[in-house]
Amino acid sequence: MRWFLPSPHNWGIGMNNDYILEMEHICKRFPGVIALDDVQLKVRRGTVHALMGENGAGKSTLMKILIGINKMDGGNIIFDGKEVQIQNTHFALKHGISMIFQELSPIPHMTVMENIYVGREQLSANRIFISKKQMAEDTANILKKLEMESINPKEKMVNLSVAKTQMVEICKAISYNSKLIIMDEPTSAISEKECDHLFKIVKQLTREGVSFIFITHKMDEVFKLADDITVFRDGKFICTELASNMNHHMLVEKMVGREITQMFPKEEVDIGDVYISFKNLTKKGLFENVSFDVRRGEIIGLAGLMGAGRTELMETIFGYRKLDSGEIYINNKKVTIKGPKDAIANKMALITEDRKLTGLYLPLSVKDNMIMPSLRRFSRGLLLQHRSIDKICNENRVNFDIKTPSINQIVNNLSGGNQQKVLIARWLMTDPEIIILDEPTRGIDVGSKSEIHKLISNLAKQGKCIIMISSEMPEVIGMSDQIVVMYKGTVKAIINRKNVTQELILENASGLET
Ligand SMILES: Nc1ncnc2c1ncn2[C@@H]1O[C@H](COP(=O)(O)OP(=O)(O)OP(=O)(O)O)[C@@H](O)[C@H]1O
Ligand SMILES: [Mg+2]
Question: In this structure, are residues 298 and 460 in contact, taking their beta carbons and an 8 Å threshold?
């Protein structure tokens, strides 16, 4: 029995209007924050609706209300023609609303098919267990529909890449007959090819009547995919427009409420002497014979495809792994980095999203997260200088434009982009000379992106050495003095700013001979 596949013919029955979803007058307050102030969102059937806005605009909060994680303070929701009170995620799922989260949360040791069918027995009293064989067959069928035959239904979730995990989540949504699928920044960690595939599948599903709400900070994606665009700013509804009636410039203006003149404000900086040198760095299976220099005031862009070994290289340089061979020189002196402590002592900072390593401690406050690596600076004997800590943290809050009611707010309560700003502020407080940034603007809105670029440019001006991993081509090209292109763990090319083109980077990143 094919009970799980949505039948396009059913969509029309009982259809009394064009909208699958109408949210109106939605309000939501958190202590000290009005996250949503009388907003609306209307999604047409069979369309992709982009929900846009700066960090902290209220996008994720509205989606969490829709899926039953957050309770709204006021407003009404009409889904599929009926007014609904969404009490919890189970209710949402049962009625045809699925969400693919910013942070994917599969159960790692379950298989793909178990992950899709987990908890399904509870769905309806008369639906008893389905057999493993049936489960595998059904899963394989949906995977085929998504052109993901390469995924084995019996594979463990831990073994899948981010892109494949995402596809499994979409499988799950389809298996629930979802009429509306919410995707919150789904492409922030997948490659361009995987992204194209995702978009193709999304388009295909819309033709079958499924609707999507799509949240992203990548502007080009919006115009590739969206039929309609809704913009929020600071918890307020600004507009809903047909994507075809908007362009990049208009959209940015609506989002930030001001004009952004310069996206990559790279300043001309006098480049000094070589400060840090990497010579033949090798870690078996990850990278081999990597050599390059960074001069004072120089920004090195580290380009490459997912899996080229860039993050692993930087983590190893920072002491999270041991090098098999190779040398690091700082100021012409050979240094040994046995762990992150040594790296910090050598005035290095690694700014990455990875929570396990140098990332944020979500249950702690903004302040605690900021001062953690610089604690020593603020202690006198056993006492902490609370007043200076508060002062500097508040300065950071202002300088980095971190949207939070206070520095005592728990980081978990901040929007994604504002969490990233806390992370950057934290590492800059250690006063480093060598700053490694791993995808510094992932998940950051256009306005703050240009702020962060300005900041990086300023650091270079102060003579700091910057190494920036980025998968965004305009960012790499706009910001770097030299671009080191990696391919399968080796340096394929080092390209000067003067000679760089997107094609040249891509050719080298995909290992083509030039
Ligand atoms: N549980 C919570 N407690 C307190 N404040 C919260 C909570 N969740 C969200 N907020 C606040 O509500 C506002 C809206 O946050 P939200 O996560 O919806 O933003 P967003 O538009 O998704 O931003 P981003 O693009 O950065 O992900 C922010 O100011 C955020 O700090
Ligand atoms: Mg968000």
Answer: yes
